[in-house]
Design a protein that fits this description.
Elements (H helix, E strand, L loop, with lengths): L15 H9 L12 H13 L4 H16 L6 H17 L15 E6 L6 H14 L4 E5 L5 H14 L2 E4 L6 H15 L3 E5 L8 H17 L6 E7 L4 H13 L4 E5 L9 H9 L3 E5 L7 E3 L2 H8 L3
């Protein structure tokens, strides 16, 4: 995950730690060299502005302050380590297993959801290539029939990844395409079936109803499926991602989160905020546009990079 928080021109973003020092404007040890409520409040504000959310931001500052009072935080390095450990602990609380629920001896069905522009179809292509590289037989189902371009885009990704593809005509019933994809995957002996859905606007009740229908129809063909419902969120949109996550999870049982475009933002606290709000694990992070720019989520590595110098 060493490419986190880099812009597309590969120039490092200014890290959270650098921005903390900008706020404090002196050695960070001043935060705890007495009662400096102004600096503590400035740190809390910075964490909130970095999309950690209010509860998490307050808890992180309180934990670091508590450790300072116990004599465990006296230097910048110790402060940075304490903050990273606090972030990691938050990401490991509750439902936090980043591994996918794979089925032995039968197809694993993954339903992928999210709004337009989040990088959903690109994520599916990258994930398919990852599975294919591991020797798995993969089938992609293009149940985003709202746009003909979406079907073509997924077909291109299937060709790049060297995997099977099932798609319907533009405007056809998305649930029928999802059913056909699962049926074809079973018939062809696929190990993994990944079903794309329309980049539905999360404020549309009609589209959420359609998403629930797709979920039900998949179960009709394979009762235990989908084995994972992965919600793709754009890491650059901050607290709007949290709003999206809550709406989608109210429509269907989201089992994992994928945060994309982390190469284009330095405000990575949203990963922590969404995990804590939904009690759903982060499964993958997207780091770029290339087919290999996808990595399984590692809470410890993420936390360390978030506060790296």
């Amino acid at each position: 995950m060493s490419r986190l928080f880099r812009r597309k021109d590969d120039v490092p973003q200014r890290s959270l730690w650098q921005r903390i020092k900008d706020v404090v404007r002196t050695d960070v040890s001043v935060l705890f060299s007495g009662v400096d409520e102004g600096s503590l409040e400035a740190l809390e504000t910075l964490l909130i502005e970095s999309d950690f959310g209010v509860p998490t931001s307050l808890a992180l500052v309180a934990e670091v302050e508590r450790r300072h009072k116990r004599g465990e935080v006296k230097t910048e390095a110790e402060f940075r380590r304490a903050l990273a450990e606090g972030v990691e602990a938050a990401l490991r609380r509750g439902n936090a297993d980043p591994s996918l629920a794979m089925v032995a001896g039968g197809p694993t069905v993954l339903l992928v959801i999210g709004v337009n522009g989040a990088g959903k179809t690109t994520f599916i292509g990258k994930l398919a290539a990852r599975f294919q590289g591991q020797g798995q037989r993969v089938l992609l189902g293009a149940a985003d029939t709202f746009r003909a371009g979406a079907i073509d885009q997924l077909r291109v990704w299937s060709e790049r990844a060297g995997v099977d593809f099932v798609g319907g005509a533009a405007g056809s019933d998305p649930a029928s395409v999802a059913y056909d994809a699962v049926d074809a995957g079973i018939t062809r002996g696929a190990d993994v079936i990944i079903v794309d859905t329309a980049g539905r606007l999360h404020t549309s009740d009609d589209l959420m109803t359609e998403l629930r229908k797709i979920h039900r129809v998949i179960k009709k063909r394979l009762p235990e499926a989908p084995h994972e419902v992965l919600l793709v969120l754009d890491g650059t949109i901050g607290q709007n991602a949290l709003s999206q996550a809550r709406t989608f999870s109210a429509a269907v049982p989201v089992t994992g989160l994928v945060v994309t475009k982390l190469d284009g933002t330095a405000k990575g606290g949203i990963v922590v905020a969404v995990h804590e709000a939904l009690n759903v694990p982060i499964k993958f992070v997207g780091l770029g546009e290339q087919i290999g720019d996808l990595e399984p989520f590692d809470a410890g590595e993420y936390a360390r990079e978030l506060v790296a110098t």
